[in-house]
Amino acid sequence: MLISCTGINKFYQDNHVLRSVSLTVENQDRIGLVGDNGCGKSTFLRILTEQELPDAFEHDDPQIAKAPNLRIGYLAQNAGLDSAKTVQEEMTDAFAPLLAAKAEMQRLEAKMEQGLTAEEQDEYARLSAYFEINDGYTTDVRIRTVLYGMGFSDADLPRTIGGFSGGEKTRLALCKLLLEAPDLLILDEPTNHLDFQTVGWLEDYLKTWRGALLIVSHDRFFLDRLCTSICELERGRMSRYKGNYTAFTKLRAEARERQQKEYDAQQREIAKLEDYVARNKVRASTAKSAKSREKQLEKIERIDRPYAAAKSAKLQFTYAVVPPIDLLEVKNIDLTVGHGASQKTLMENISFTVRRGEKIGIIGENGAGKSTLLKVLRNILPHRGLVRWASGTRLGCFEQESESLNPYATVFDELHDRYPSLSDFEVRSLLGQVRLTGENVFKETGVISGGERAKLCFAILMMEHGNVLLLDEPTNHLDLTTKEILEQALAEFDGTILFVSHDRYLLDRIADNLLVLENGEVTRFAGRFSAYQETVRRRTEAEESAAAAEKQRKAEEAAKSSHRSKEQRSLEAKRRAEQKRIEQEMDALQAEQDALQESLSDEAVASDYEKMQAVCSRLDEIHRTLDEMLERLIELEEA
């Protein structure tokens, strides 16, 4: 057992968010945590990681037990890094214990000639074993492996964190967590800012994770590939189902159907008993029997009413003015980020057109300039070139980070201030339409969940009545139910849509065209996202086939030109013989080194200073010899 909690309750004002929640996480568990937005998933994770405390409730005493020395890694929705540090510094911080051990070993090694005390010898042996077991010599390789997998390169290592986009910072925070390799890795929406290739790499990496995983995600593909059990938070209570997300949906449906039948049967029984008591309690002849039925009623352990999903949000995007067919002309624009000396050009001389009614998905790697392109189209970023919207165009915009919301205004005031002509009743009705109800409408926009902020932005978007919708990652932070409602609303919208998304379902259902930002260029693809993926697959296979053919051609040419003089062949034979001899000697020295390294943990050696010094001296001699041999091998390879 890594961690176990029971009796976890949490209140926010009068809202009982968590009701006696219990969960046990074992090593190698792969748990997906799902539930509607605002149901308490992130709150529960913060309690698990001791960022919040549970509330006491009646006789439910909260208990959280952890395994000794348990290391928990937590990627929150708004994870942050030190903006002043470089990527190299942040990633290296993940190995702080190893680096501290290395520094102490170096300090002790410097004292060896003067002599180490028995305690220092023991400490050196312990640190050496710790450093070896935890692969201390491979930290740089591990850093690059994870960074490359998450879409970064060597050029990013010296860059400061503050120079990256929000999505890139989230990826860097995830990289650091993966390098720290905690016993329990908790991820809150880890795929929100990842492109398709990076999500695939992360899925493959986590499938071999040695610890336990607890994942909050609305990505059904992600949950299906990784999870072996699903925990659902519903009306404050947690239920656990065995299997991945697809299995969970079937098991939950069966459980609800079973509970409904049991509930209905019990309700019929209760109604029958109540009716009997009501009709016979006042009669002297049957009062005793009625009293017996009344006691029977009191003893019945009531089955909870089966969960009926909350009234779904209703999204409908409308407009009054129909714009011309030739809607947008973009000609020779540049995409740049930053200012002054730090300004960086992402793309140059971009040109394309948009016609009325087109629904265009904008895709590309993080940092390619997708959000920047939308801002240029809205004329809120300076740019070179032409962006011309036809007369009669009215834009409706959804921003990825809800940047235009006042974090100190309440949800109600945010909407009312934008549209003061609306009555209080109309504002509450519109908010209710997107399922922002009750006390939630009086919370500040800066403290509500990401999904709730998105719903507020959808309410604003409906009021804008745009005949063109510009959407930047509209499904981020949305629960599965709201995603499906948004997809339906966008499918029914007969205006024009340009949207940035990493949501594979949304792209394939809504976009009939794609703008692909790749390698500093924008290309247009006419067709659905699934067709684009198939095209990319075929192109990749063709490139790999061409590369293999080129490799074969070069090999054949090399074979033809391999005829050399007798003297050249003789020299080559001598070089190979020397290489083989050196490799055999290195293997023998490596074996001796391993044996000496293992002897350092032997009490007979560790407690005898002379033996310890002899072993360390021999290890130094072997290290020097191996280095010399390696240099000679390199010379022979390059000869």
Throw out a few tags for this protein.
about 650 residues, alpha/beta, Rossmann fold, 6-stranded mixed sheet, 20 helices
Distance between the termini: 57 Å
- The helical percent reads 40-55%
Strand content: 15-25%
Give the low-confidence spans.
Answer: none
Roughly what is the average pLDDT, rounded to an integer?
A: 88
CATH architectural grouping of the largest domain: 3-Layer(aba) Sandwich
CATH superfamily of the largest domain: P-loop containing nucleotide triphosphate hydrolases
Strand order of the largest sheet: 5-6-7-3-8-9
SS field, number of helical segments: 20
Mind telling me the CATH class of the largest domain? Alpha Beta
Structural class: alpha/beta
CATH fold name of the largest domain, please? Rossmann fold
Strand runs, count: 18
Shape: globular
Query: How would you sum up the major sheet?
Result: 6 strands, mixed
Count up the domains.
Answer: 5
